[in-house]
Design goal:
Order of helices and strands: HHEEEEE
Number of strands: 5
Structural class: alpha+beta
Number of helices: 2
Radius of gyration: 24 Å
Largest sheet: 3 strands, antiparallel
Bound molecules: zinc ion
Helix content: 10-25%
Number of domains: 2
Length: 94
């Protein structure tokens, strides 16, 4: 019967270098089955800069990453990736 075991439990088991291969196999057989947990939440593949502009001039004063909220001053619109979370930035069509 197929079942699922914890990757970390296997790594912990084989971290003991003194075990023979037979002991490792027996240890894997004795690991408890785990129930996989579904990933929750939506993870965007791309983000965009949210611009905050000066009321009087329209100049972009600072920008905020749509994924992590990282705030950058000045030239953020030229950055292709957020320096904080690493998400790829896409230009938002207006
Ligand atoms: Zn970010």
């Amino acid at each position: 019967m197929d079942d699922l075991i914890s990757r970390q439990a296997v790594l912990d088991l084989i971290a003991d270098y003194d075990l023979s291969m037979g002991q490792v196999v027996k240890g894997i057989h004795n690991l408890p089955s785990v129930i996989p947990q579904p990933k929750t939440g939506y993870e965007p593949k791309t983000g965009h800069w949210i611009y905050f502009t000066a009321v009087n001039t329209g100049e972009i004063i600072w920008s905020k990453c749509s994924k992590c909220g990282n705030e950058e001053r000045g030239c953020a619109q030229r950055m292709k990736y957020c320096p904080e979370c690493g998400i790829k930035m896409q230009e938002v069509k207006k």
